[in-house]
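Following up on my earlier thread - several people asked me to post the actual chain instead of describing it. Fair enough. Here it is, all 325 residues.
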Amino acid sequence: MSGGNFGEAIMKAFVKPFAAETGVKVTPIMQDVTNAQVGLMVKSGSVTIDVVLTGHSSALVLAANGYLEEIDYSIHKDLDSIIDYCRSPYGFGSYIYSWNMFCNTRKLPSSERRPTTWTEFWDVAKFPGKRSLPSGEYGSGGPWEEALLADGVPMDKLYPMDIDRVFASLDKIKPHIRKWWTTGAEILQIMRDNVADLGESYDGRALSLIDAGEPIEINRNQAKLYWDNWIIPKGSPNAANAQKFIALTSRADRQADFARLFGQSPSNRNAFKSIADDVARKLATYPAYAASSFPLNAKWYGETGSGGVPNSELLRQRWNAWIVR
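Reply from S.P.:
Thanks for posting it. Predicted structure:
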């Protein structure tokens, strides 16, 4: 998992309570672990990480390659209260978040009009300023849907994605991107250091700065809903304890604590019972935001595209050739 305030919240809400309750020693690794690293560990028979937190699309790719242990849901409590799409055979999502447009309010004061759609974000003539978007180097988690929305595709018509149209749209914004970010810690630093006037961020990263008084504002319109998965690499030497840890992350009390520490929506509906309304309003799945948001179709990323290659891999290959041009 990545570091920064996100990593601290994971430690406080999940890792430390697990260690205290079970007596199991946990060694945290405060950095992102890639699909390639997981695959190499499994193929070499040398699995050194027992639980990995990764994007749902990445988990689907790893599962398709046979690199993951199945999640033992028999030891989860309150399972009926978990949102269905967060409960997959090879990964469990303990929180839901959104990818949101943000702006620096010092650079774009309230007296000036700010972009509220991705079409407006792409309009650099009407809305000048330095921009930052997520990198597409991992295939999943790139600015793909945003590029289509900018080109006029409705939210309910994004999938199956037209990859040629995605990159034609990205061609238009590419010269105006100051930084393509790769991790949550990196976009946090970009916002904190005023590297970009406009950009896209995980809502939790932006909200942590807003709560700290930083001049950041997020826009909930056309937000992309996403969830990460706790996964267990196949052959984990401590798989039993890994299963127990993931079961703890599904509990309403642990998810409510995490939501209070870091603005991510719980996947356990019962967690909302102990979350104050002022906190709930900061969460991605708050009812008032539903009509203007859309869930990422992670299944499409794992489906086979042209040449028998998963769509996420097609995007990764296309990105790597495109970004160096």
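The chain has a mean pLDDT of 93. That should answer part of your original question.
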